Amino acid sequence: MSSVRRLPPLRSMAVICALGSSVLLMTGCTNADTARSSVAEAAQTTPATNTASPTDTGTATATSTGSASPSASASMTDDQAERKALVPQAKVTWDKAADTAVKEVPDSKLVDLELKRTSAEATASTGSPSPSTPNPAPSQGAPEWEAKVATSDGTVHRIDIDAVSGKVFRTQAEDQDTDDKQQLADLLKKATQTPEQAVKAATGKVKGTVTHVELDENDNQKAIWSVDVVSTDSWDKTTLEVDAASGDILNQHVDRD
């Protein structure tokens, strides 16, 4: 008698199929969870990348910028730069220029002396050559000492001196009226302190190079010597008022412009 293989019942087949589907579903879910976990771990371990564009003005730009540029206060003003350019060019000191000026006019005294650049007027030689040493004017823009000396009656002569060679290249009488002469004559009588004494008092207070000395009156009608001293460190200019009778320092002002 031949044996016959039995087919499993339909119910058993349904159960088997259901179990198989469950296993496949669980496997798929497990793989999905594993993938999500891997992505999360990768996000935690990967360093953040700065995506700021070159035009952003936030911290990304700040960190890529080098040292800050110098502030405006660290640079010199136009006047300071001009002093730095002019003062070292003058090879003749104020006292040598003053001595030269008073020798040009007999019995005169210094009333004004200033270091400046030679003007177009001076190079045109509108005045008279020096009677003692006639010399050509320096080129326009070159350093010169412009001096003014006065006789006891208040008559003023202007003396232009080359600040490099020390030679006089022009002398000229100033245009004055009677009142101007008398006022200056009275001021000369009050000034018992010489310009040398005034400068000594000023430079004893402030160190530097003297670029201007002038006999004047202050607001209280007191005769003073106004002395400008330029610092060769900062190129600031300090103006000191020296009592022309006592030699005391009455006031001082620093010009940092």
TrEMBL record:
InterPro entries: PepSY
Keyword Transcription regulation on entry: no
Annotated region described as Disordered, given as residue ranges: 40-83, 118-146
Ranges of Low complexity composition bias in the record: 48-78, 120-130
Domain of life the protein comes from: Bacteria
UniProt domain PepSY: residue ranges: 194-252
Signal peptide: 1-32
Alphabetically ordered keywords of this record: Signal
Protein name stated in the entry: PepSY domain-containing protein
